[in-house]
Amino acid sequence: MTRPPNPDPATFPYVVVSWERGARLFVLDVPPCDGRSCPTPAIIAEVETSPGPHNVVAAGQVVWVTHPREGRLSRYDVSTGKLVSEVVGSEPHDVALAPDGSVAYVSDEAGHRLVVVDPNTLNVVDEVPLPARPHNVEVVGTEVWVSLDRRDELAVVSGDELELVPTGGAPHDLVVGGDGRLWISQWGSADLLVVDPATWTVEGSASGLENPQHFAVTPTGALWVSDNDGPTVAVFDAGDVERVEVSVPQHHLGWVAERLIAAGAGEIVVVGPDSTATSIPVGRGLHGVATGTTPALATTDGP
Description:
mainly beta, four-stranded antiparallel sheet
């Protein structure tokens, strides 16, 4: 596989997109931009999984995937192509890693709990009961922040301690932006919530999107937001906002090698540094996106 020059020849950027309807993962090689152009990402593997692969997170060469209908969490090694899967709950929806990679946190919606999982063995090592269906998860230092389905508050978990913090809205997804503030999309609202975690001051921010849902943060601190009902993505950067037409609604986003990768309606959307959008048609039912780097890339069609 030929690649352009890479500042670190030992690692290569990649992206994994989950395809719920197809019960598989798409692995894309994302060659770095060389200053003059950005080569088009290419699908290098399709990995069959348990039914309904949903949310994904990556660290280095490993990707973790939830399967809500099966109660499973999968672990996929991009370099070797090895895939393992274990039951971790009733309806695992989202997954996030501790900063040191020691544990994974899984929101078990039907189980009304946050499940703590060993990321290597996939064994459940702890759990924290929650007062409602947990949805998305963000790890902030030693705390785990969890949105609760249709509730106007966040669950903040620190060890075995649980605090419910009102937000004045109905949090859906959440991420810490480059400005250190917590950005929150809401159920049934075009507006975002922006929270100062030090004072818990809540501000509103118009997105200009129809149904903003998920985020991707760039290394420079810019924040991209998807639109699940419209053909536009928005990027917030140092107080400015830019909107980019991408032709289809999108769900989860990822940022890698100077490009935005989106799970679009029937296609993987790629937005380059010049805000030009291209797409890779694959089929409807795409959902999660995870990005990382790995010393080598698998090229097989399965685990």
